[in-house]
Amino acid sequence: TIPLIGIIFHFDDYEKYVMNLAMRFMNTELKFYSLTALIVSFFGVFINLGSIPFVYQLLFNHSKNFPENLMYKAISRGFFPNMMWAPSCIAVAVIIEYFNFSWQELAPMGFTLAVLAHFLSIFIEKFISLKNGNEISIELVANSLSKKDTLKLLALVIVLITSVVFFDFVTGKSFLVIMSLVSLIVPVILAVIYHKINVLKKETKEYILSLNDKNNECILFFAIGFFAYALRYTNIGEYITLVLSTLGFNSPITLIPFFILLVLGLSIIGVHPIITISTISLTVPINQLPISIEQLAFSLLIGYSLYQLVSPFSTAVLVLTGITHKNPLDISIKINKLYVIAFVALSTMLLVFVY
Fold first, then answer.
1. pTM of the model
2. Which of 106, 174, 179, 208 is most buried (most C-beta within 10 Å)?
3. Largest CA distance in the chain
4. pLDDT tens readout for residues 54-97
5. H-type helices in 80-196, by residue range?
6. What's the DSSP call for residue 145?
7. Nearest to 68 by CA among 336, 340, 337, 324
8. Residue 105 contacts by C-beta under 8 Å, 6 or more apart in sequence?
9. What contacts 241, CB < 8 A, 6 or more positions away?
10. The dihedral formed by the CA atoms of 81, 85, 88 and 93, expressed in degrees to the nearest 10
């Protein structure tokens, strides 16, 4: 049901708002990069992977004023931080279900990590990628961006977050149930407010028809869940604990990057991170490891998020290669390896300090 949230973008001309923003502020490489990443993050909260082709097509002509790689870095680095906090992201739902958290418990640290990721990406682009001082600057045509338009964009995020908190408080159900309720009810309420009931009916019908093509995805997630739960009845957890202890992973400062890189490393060679996360979550006896449940949960969540950034098999990279016709390695690990190393180091220190 999550993709139903994206229907709300058919109720108003949000493309015009984004173009007005671009034509008013994106006159240098750093501004284009930073704002593109933030725009992808904003739309990604609602339409997830759909934000990648949406923003790419929207800003394609404007991106021709700057180096080609700048667009790819901005989109990929803007998309991945959402994986650590946004209620519409599957990794967030999986971690919440396996570790018995509420979204309110996960969101503050997840959002902090997302903000850290954005600041780190801007820092790296400013002081490393653009250190030669020859930054491109262009003339822009003056364009209007009213306060009303800006408030409409911000209101969408507020409505979504408020709805999640409200249904969590009222129902007390699992996060998957809550997000299903939000996905079904919020578009209906906004359709009534915008007088777009016919648009809601049309887009809902198209989405239902599109489910005919989702058989492979359903089979994959059923198989992953079955495999992970089956492993609970083996002794694999004890073996993992023994191996970690033997190898010297006996503190959070070593275990956090280990679990992050384990999820990320296996995803780079083709193992879906949900498989790795499910296996670890259901088999590793946390009480026998010198790491808190929060540290382990966020380590797995960060690993999944970075998978979207650098794995040539990730859905985000595959979507981006599909619209750019580039080599997956060229727009994933080649342009993001330094960024990933820095983020793993910083996020590890943050998790050790906070928990």
1. 0.84
2. 179
3. 65
4. 899 888 888 888 888 899 999 999 999 999 999 888 889 889 98
5. 90-99, 103-124, 147-171, 175-194
6. -
7. 324
8. none
9. 284, 285, 288, 289
10. 120
